[in-house]
Design brief:
six-stranded parallel beta sheet, globular, eight-stranded mixed beta sheet, 16 strands, alpha/beta, about 20% strand
Amino acid sequence: MRVAIVTESFLPALNGVTTSVCKVLECLRDQGHEALVVAPGTSPWSPTMTPEHYAGFPVHSVTSVPVRQFRVGLPSYEIETVLHRFRPDVMHVASPFVLGVRGLTAARALGIPSVAIYQTDMPSYIRQHMGPAGDLTARAAWRWIRRIHQQADLTLAPSSAALADLAEHDVPRIAQWGRGVDSDLFHPDRRQDSATQDLRARLAPNGETLLGYVGRLAPEKELHRLEELSRMPGTRLVLVGEGPSREILEAQLPGAVFLGRRQGIELAQAYASFDVFVHTGTRETFGQTLQEAAAAGLPVVAPARGGPLDLVEVGRTGALFDPDRAGSLAAEVTPLVGPQAADLRAQMGQAGRERVVARSWPALVEQLVDYYALVIGATSRSVA
């Protein structure tokens, strides 16, 4: 197939949307397909530019503006020109909100079948940041999302909770498509790496149980909840990632270690140095870091809301805490702390890995290509 991908986020920005798009591109290449990417460009003064190619495929960058540390691509008619030249069989629109809307409009005008990936719970983020006007603005955001996705031939949601949200807000033609995980990179055997052992010796010099988090350090991740764990005896908090909340969190969590942004093998070694993985955000449509932690053989503790409901099997692979009850996070983590809990952590970690190891990116992209074929077939029938 020839696949045009229009994405709201791409390299050098690192987030869930970028990661998913990159993995899809790599697998499309390996499976013999052709692809083109349309993505926000960087500032002319940026030290790292949007790449001109990825996985051997061309990347067309469009003018963008900064909004809350994100680059937002500006819609323009150049998308139609790019698509007309590439002549795709299908368009894949990643987390459409601004640039993706233009992509869907162009696809409809050119008769290109389209698949939209719902990935970001924008209404919840808006509700969180808009104060007294949050509820009203969030309802407006849902109306905008419904209008966007009505243009797509199919919308794919990453979890059962996200699928239910879309159905509740009358988004048509929806189905579930999860996310893959690199179970070779994120592997329990990384604990034997000398770099991992050195890192662990530095982080837990007195045998502390390491409670780890990986992700953006931003308000929507609700990392203030980690205060419940910051003074738990025999533990140390370790946070991997960067974001606008770092300075605030350093003040809130004085005993925590901040490792900054890590990628590739260094990220895998960070996971492997942890004993327990903790996640605090209640607005995750999926929760990719929970899958990575499970693949690394870690028990996972996360909120009983959103994407984690699909990813954590309570009592077997980890625990879910009640985000509306103070102290619930600490209560769920406590049984996993200390040398006496080592066997329980190992059992949960093994069960978690067994649960996700088959969710490879190649397998997930094969499923995605089947969805592409479905909308191509439906469009062909409607034209006929």
